[in-house]
Amino acid sequence: MERKIGMRNDRPGYQYRAKKDGTRVHYWNPQRAVKGASSALSIIRLPDDFTEEQISAECQRLTKQLRPEVRNSGNAPTFDGTISSLIKCYRHDKTSTLHGVKHSTRIRDYEPSLRILEKNVGDRDINALRASDFTRWFNGWRKKGKHRRATGAIKLLRLILSYGAGERLRGCKDARAILADMRFEQPAPRDVFMTYEQCLAIVKKSAELKCPSIGFVEAVKFETALRRIDVIGEWAPSEEGGPFKWAGLTAPRDLSRDMILSIKTSKTGAPVARDLKSYPLVVEALKAYSLPDIGPLVIDEDYGKPYWENRYATKFRAVRDAAGVPDNVWSMDTRAGAVSETVEATGSIEMASDLATHTTTKMTKKYSRGDGLETSRKIAEARNAKRK
Question: With a threshold of 0.70, does the pTM exceed it?
Answer without folding.
Answer: no
